[in-house]
Amino acid sequence: MQKFIDNFKSKILRNFFCAVFCFLFLLSTANAQNKKIPTRLLFILDASGSMAGKWQEGSRLDAAKAIITHMADSLAKENISFALRIYGHQSEKSLIDCNDTKLELPFAKSTAANLTETLNRINPKGYSPIALSLEQAVNDFTLTKYECKNVIVLITDGFENCEGDACLAAEKLQSAGIFFRPYIIGLGLNSESKIKFDCVGQVFEANETASNFKEQISEVVISTIMNPTSLQVNLLNEAEKPIETNANMTFYDHENKSIKYNIIHTLNASGNPDTLFVDPQKKYDIKIHTLPAKEINNIELIPGKHIIAATSAGQGSLKISINGTSKYKNLQAIIKQKNQIINVQNVNTTLNYLTGIYQIEILTCPRIILKDVNILQSQQNIINIPAAGTLQVNKSQPGYISIFKREQNTLIQILVVPVGANKQTIQLQPGNYEVSFRAKNAISNKSTIQKKFNIVSGIATTANF
Amino acid sequence: MKKNHSKGLFLFLVLLQCMASIGFAQIKTNTAVKTRILFMMDASGSMTNNWSTSNRFKISKTVIAAMADSLQKNPNIEMGLRVFGSMSPLSVHDCKDSRIETPIRPNNANNIKLKLNALNAKGITPIAYALEQCAYDFIGSNEKCRNIVILITDGIESCEGNACEVSKRLQQKGIILQPFIIGLGLSTEAAATFDCIGRYDDAQDEIGFRKALKSTMNFILNNTTVQLNLLDEKGKATETNVPVTFYDNVVDIQRYHFIHTLNARGNADTLQIDPINNYNIVVHTTPPIEKKNVSIATNQHNIINIPAAQGELLVTTDGLSTYKELACVITKANSEETVDVLTINEKKKYLTGLYDVEILTLPRISIQSTRIAQSELTTIKIPAPGLVTILNTNAVPVLGSIFKEKGQSLEWVCDINGNSTTETITLQPGNYRLVYKNKGSKRAMTTRDERFKISSGSSANIRF
């Protein structure tokens, strides 16, 4: 519990920083061309055993070194200082050293010559403590008196293989308000790792088939850093305010329809839809998993710009509850709109739906059908159904039993008890019922016995035949 | 000794009588229920007008008296007499001029005849009021009695009352069956006003009157039966064991209800039926069948054929592990209205035809146009589920949903309860993703995307 409270305190603190950060960030995106704020870039290089794998003529590590060298060269022209942290390069794999991460080249010593010297003595060896590297990176950026844009570029061929939580580490970095979302340069990442890295940062993949891969990737990454391309999805309530949130958004590649990202819509500390960083080279179709789902198709990002996509997604909530203790097992309600099933909601839960008219069918016995349930903006529609009563049917011999609901003069059959069962307990909504019984081997209609019952919430009734 | 002998004889006679009456009682219940007939006779001024061989009033008295005598022989009949228009002269325009002259009782013919003799025709024709009052005449009759009003009149309503409404109301309350009306020398227009009150029969002279009353009695008292055949797809009457309800067509109340039965010969068992009204017949198959406005020919064995071909449906799982209490929503193919909710692993009969089945697994399984065929068992097998257990070891509330990979797209399955430390969810086999983030996180890009695979009978764990 204490842990939770501490967590909570630190979260408030973080959120405060975050607010400051967001403000600065918004400023910086608004003035993307205005490069007054100095940028510092930390390379985190993967030198784990797998980096010995083949890349073109040499190893992946060779490719990574070439990329860093080329990028460092370009950064000098942009007046960006850099530093280099490496993991997995000190201990052999057999040692399973999950603390193997070290700042090899601090900002103060980052010259081209020092970089070459450092890279030359590195060989691929151990494990990938990515989370730990990200955590320690905080201290690699020395405190400055002036405002800085702090960027991390991770170059790797695979995901964390220590116990660390790289996503959480990345989240903490950003929440502190000091860092931008990391950039990841992938060298032959498998599809699973690629998805895992989405929560850490923006993934760029080096192209193994291109001879000029290092130039290509450097250009893309640096231009993204200098002119971040971003997207904001506004989910509008009925008053056209972008305050609806918390729905997952699946980003599909507009061209080949493959899944690119899953991002849960979030309001940032200022209460605005949080900025999203997705691959700017693609067009997207976004499916927003509200109930029912909404779509925004063919979103095109503009490099260096902040794009806003919007859709109306006014929501209210629906609570279906049953009075007293329900003896139904797993009672559900089918939520339909225009004859399509939108969802099956468990009774005694609350869920959000887009505003509008719904039809609800609660699978009590008999079913309760509500034709026009209106979900209004930001309001909770509460449906209370009465508790069931219990009917126990006892048979002294095998026979046919039907249970009818009596509505005025009409009998509606709601349940047929299996012929063989000699005892059955049934949950029924309060009301007037009739039970018909006829012995299995009877040979006359007149053998039918009909009994009338009044079922009351929470009360057990017995019918003996 | 002699005394003893006579005592013995007396006892023997009593016993014999008892046996006879028991036997009689049994015949009674087997053939017909008690019928209570109330003659409601017009004694308005116009009844004394010349008609046929004498005047309507005299003829009515004679005809009713004769009928009372002949009905008296039937022990299942009780009779009574109510008149209207007999107390106040025409000039008074007494709209409450009606009274029960002879309350309904067994062996009542003589009492009725005595009263008839003493009656005079004077006033107006308050039919609605008289009909309303007859509700009191039937008080004390039990549910099984057939309460019948026979209205004999030569005129139409002369007060404000609405006899149609009264008739319908009394029928709806189950107080009376549809009334019979015999009109004495009425014009066609006048006769038409009685159509909504009950079954109207016209008499233009004494002979016509006698005939009309006799045919009414035949209608009421003759032995009418119904054999309801539930037909399979070959048109054979093999379907059975489903409940059937006969509703009164006029007032929509339940008249007969029984579970359909084949007798010892394998034929649909015969039902004694009252031919007075038409019926709406509901066969409680799934979905139910309704046959409306079925008329019954009196004094005949009526055969009613209703197609009710059925087959069985079972939804079950492959393999050993299965669901408990899983609901399968059954709708008619291309229709939206729910026909039934079937529980997994339970067999149930449905009318033959095409159905859509929506199985409320996670995610749901939709099966379109499943055919239920005559006397066959249609089995829908769904894959056995697997489990995913989500362990939230961080003790930080999360916001998350499970999605199923369906081809290239993601389909929302359910939200997770991000507040609990352990949650187990039963899922169909397939590839899934858990998309989640810490509830408190203000950064959208901290969303995580965890893939997992579910196979039948196995379980997967996700820890965060």
Q: Under CATH, the topology of the largest domain in chain B is which?
A: Rossmann fold
Estimated helix fraction of chain B: 10-25%
Rg of chain A over CA atoms, rounded to whole Å, is 32 Å
The largest pleated sheet of chain A is described as: 6 strands, mixed
Strand content range of chain A: 35-45%
CATH architecture type of the largest domain in chain B: 3-Layer(aba) Sandwich
Largest sheet features of chain B: 6 strands, mixed
Q: What's the CATH H-level superfamily name of the largest domain in chain A? A: von Willebrand factor, type A domain
* Number of structurally distinct domains of chain B: 4
CATH class of the largest domain in chain B: Alpha Beta
Topology:
The complex is a heterodimer of chains A (465) and B (464).
Chain A: H1 2-30, E1 39-46, E2 54-55, E3 58-59, H2 60-78, E4 81-87, E5 101-105, H3 112-120, H4 130-140, E6 149-156, H5 166-175, E7 183-186, H6 191-197, E8 202-205, H7 213-226, E9 230-236, E10 248-253, E11 259-264, E12 283-288, E13 294-300, E14 306-312, E15 315-322, E16 332-337, E17 340-346, E18 349-354, E19 356-362, E20 368-375, E21 380-385, E22 389-394, E23 399-407, E24 410-417, E25 423-428, E26 431-439, E27 449-455, E28 460-464
Parallel strand pairs in A: 1-4, 1-6, 6-7, 7-8, 9-14, 15-21, 22-28
Antiparallel strand pairs in A: 2-3, 4-5, 10-11, 10-12, 12-13, 15-18, 16-17, 16-19, 19-20, 22-25, 23-24, 23-26, 26-27
Helix pairs in contact in A: 2-3, 2-7, 4-5
Chain B: H1 2-31, E1 35-42, E2 50-51, E3 54-55, H2 56-72, E4 77-84, E5 98-105, H3 109-118, H4 127-137, E6 146-153, H5 163-172, E7 180-184, H6 188-192, E8 199-203, H7 206-221, E9 225-231, E10 243-248, E11 254-259, E12 270-272, E13 279-283, E14 289-294, E15 301-307, E16 310-317, E17 327-332, E18 338-343, E19 348-351, E20 353-359, E21 365-372, E22 377-382, E23 386-391, E24 398-406, E25 409-415, E26 422-427, E27 430-438, E28 448-454, E29 459-463
Parallel strand pairs in B: 1-4, 1-6, 6-7, 7-8, 9-15, 16-22, 23-29
Antiparallel strand pairs in B: 2-3, 4-5, 9-12, 10-11, 10-13, 13-14, 16-19, 17-18, 17-20, 20-21, 23-26, 24-25, 24-27, 27-28
